[in-house]
């Protein structure tokens, strides 16, 4: 994925094309594989807390399922109800901090632009205060009960209209140029490589294009 570093970051958003997923090459039906795409505030240079929202994909025995969620660390992620996600859908993800709360309250949104489903969660606070220094657009693995979930194969995920608002009340809006890039490596192998296409577009892909 990619992240920007700034000050007083109060909003991060992007729209992705939700990918088809499959077992990785050599994958076994009895093993569960997964991955996730999300946007968030903090979690890179500021690792004490993070406000994020996104969608997990999980596949076992050739049967995929998808879960939309929101999270404000150190609390665990919580599943959104009443949103249906399918491969090929355009999904908008956004998080925002309530101004005047010192980064202790905010909101997470996910909208399926394809079918019209929209879910929102407001964190009334006070939550652990955000540093408001990182804006993130990420494709990654996630933690399961036994550690990191084995990573599933996925079609390219493209974040479009990716931007963040910073500088507090000045509400400056910027995009991806100048971001720090993150490459996902699992068991010594690269699993997700991303590139910036333009200031508002980021594409992340599985290095081995074949399932």
UniProtKB/TrEMBL annotation:
One of the GO BP terms on file: proteolysis
Active-site residues, Swiss-Prot/TrEMBL: 140
Domain of life: Eukaryota
GO terms for MF: glutamic-type endopeptidase activity
Record's protein name: Concanavalin A-like lectin/glucanase
